[in-house]
User: Fold this.
Amino acid sequence: MKAAVVHGVNDIRIEEYPTPKAGAGEVVVKTHVAGICATDIKTLLGLGLPKDLPTILGHEVVGEIAETGKGVSGFAVGDRVGVYPIAVCGKCRYCRQGRHNLCEAEFGLGHGIEGGFAEYVRLPREIVDIGGVVRLAEDLSFEDAVFAEPLSCTLAAARSCRLKKDDQVLIIGAGPMGLMHLKTAKYHGCEVMIADLIDKRLELAGKMGADHVINSGEKNLHDEVMRITAGRGADAVIISLGIPQVIEDNMKLTAKGGVCNIFGGPPPSEIKLDPRWLHYLEITLTGTFASTPADFRECLELIHNKSIIVSDLLSHTFTVDSFLDAVEKAKNQEMVRGIVTFT
Assistant:
């Protein structure tokens, strides 16, 4: 099969790769669309690069069943499916609590096993058994369905932030994930402020329903947030950037009793924090890593019934042959969200 194969830092090659076979309890999916995530780009640049190389990245995958292994029931060749990309044990303390993304034995597509930037992808028993292979509605396009995985991460963050109607939410960063946080917060009925340094991103956020867009390079973000919230601060601050100084500077914009969510994955680092801020203001400081299978399934339904529109997030479409161009555009922040098609 043809695949985008990672051989090392900044070394990705389009080449033939062994086509996977389904073992017992496993499924092989013929990839129709794979989403390009910022995590993939960071990995290519050396942040969390897998030890076992060469390998294939890509964890946002939709397609059709190509093969089912012994013991797999409920699926037939040709079924259209979306894929929850984390393989979990289903037995540890966290899995029993429904917090599968924190599984003590988790691995997944693009980290531990080959991912979806290939014509075919093998899904291990752990993904199949947890209900991570989800049949798609016939009228749900692959191009929309591929957004369920990243959107499910913002849905998980909304749960951590306890979002509810009329909450005032501040999103730091209007990149693709920031825009999905915006859509998720608006779905919950929130008033949304979103901050970024790039006017083009803020303009798009405004078109997608942001109530307040703030260029934090031109205006004092603290003053703007306090003006909008009558001096209280935001009920939830979602920091969709993994930059330690940005985290440290902006978590203080959280209102009393509010939640600050560190969503963007930061590098190993430290930030300064006055514990009195947490204590006297009863702030909840948390983070969000990935999502659960239930979040993924819910987002497929939200997209299908158009409760959350995702089609306006898609800015670029590539093939596996033009994948290197996709990587460069992602590195240079030239696209909102890109996908790779295999049909």
